[in-house]
Amino acid sequence: MFWLLAILAYLLGSLSFAILLSRLAGGPDPRASGSGNPGATNMLRVAGKKLAVMTLIGDLCKGLLPILIAKLLGLSLHQQAWIGLAAVVGHLYPLYFRFRGGKGVATAAGMLLGLYPPAALLALAAWALIFLLTRTSSLASLIATPLTLPLLAWQQPAALLPACVLTALIVWRHRRNLRDLFAGRERRF
Questions:
Q1: pLDDT tens digits, residue range 23-34?
Q2: What are the φ and ψ backbone dihedral angles of 37, each rounded to 5 degrees?
Q3: For residues 30 and 179, what is the distance between their CA atoms, to the nearest angstrom?
Q4: pLDDT score at 171
Q5: Number of C-beta neighbours around residue 3 at 10 A
Q6: Quick one: the chain helix, strand, coil %, rounded to 5?
Q7: pLDDT > 90? residue 13
Q8: Which residues form a coiled coil (predicted)?
Q9: What number of other Cβ atoms are within 10 A of residue 165's Cβ?
Q10: Which of 11, 108, 124, 180 pairs with 143 at a CA distance of 20 to 30 A?
Q11: Mean pLDDT score of the chain, rounded to an integer?
């Protein structure tokens, strides 16, 4: 059951709501506009608030739904965390879109919400505070995700290894943003 759910989570994660919603609305491919990232932040830039919010909700649900199914089927927290990570990997490297995906932050938030809601709330609070102070989404994401690790280590150690892999993947996907942050060129809102 674990492997089947992990594969299904990856396939679900591979659905890119940014690309699908852009196509339905007749808008530009978000991978070819703005930052080139098919995620909620870029959708806000290229398609407006409505599609950005819909993308955010869709991406969040991709991380949450597999965890809820795994819980319902009685899988362990450790297994749930790996299944949630499979959904995030699907978002990062989507099978349906030539493996050109987003940065995984909203899908990771859904994963954390399913695994341990206090970790998701901590990440959300940190993200909001950093964003309000800097108006930089990438910096907020790069700070919020690692902040959940000590809480998970303390309260949900079975989820720690998959959460560490998640954090490493998110930092990796933000490597261009890191270069731009250090060079003072990162986009702000």
A1: 999 888 898 888
A2: -100, 125
A3: 21
A4: 96
A5: 11
A6: 80, 0, 20
A7: yes
A8: none
A9: 15
A10: 11
A11: 94
Output the pTM of the full model: 0.94
- Output the six-digit token pair for 41: 């932040």
List CB contacts of 70: < 8 A, sequence separation 6 or more.
5, 79, 80, 83, 84
Give which of 60, 115, 128 is closest to 88, Cα–Cα: 60
Using CA atoms, how far residue 61 sits from 31, 64, 109, 132, 177, in Å, is 21, 5, 9, 25, 25
Query: What value does the mean pLDDT take over residues 17-40?
Result: 89
Distant-in-sequence, close-in-space partners of 64: CB < 8 Å, separation ≥ 6:
110, 111, 113, 114
Amino acid at 11: L
* Inter-residue long-range contacts of 41-45, CB under 8 Å, 24+ positions, other chains counted: 41/137, 42/18, 43/18, 44/189
Query: What are 71-117's pLDDT values in tens digits?
Result: 999 999 999 999 999 999 999 999 998 898 999 999 999 999 999 99
CA–CA dist 118, 68 (Å, integer): 16
What would the two tokens of residue 1 be?
Answer: 């059951």
Q: Give the helix/strand (H/E) hosting 93.
A: none
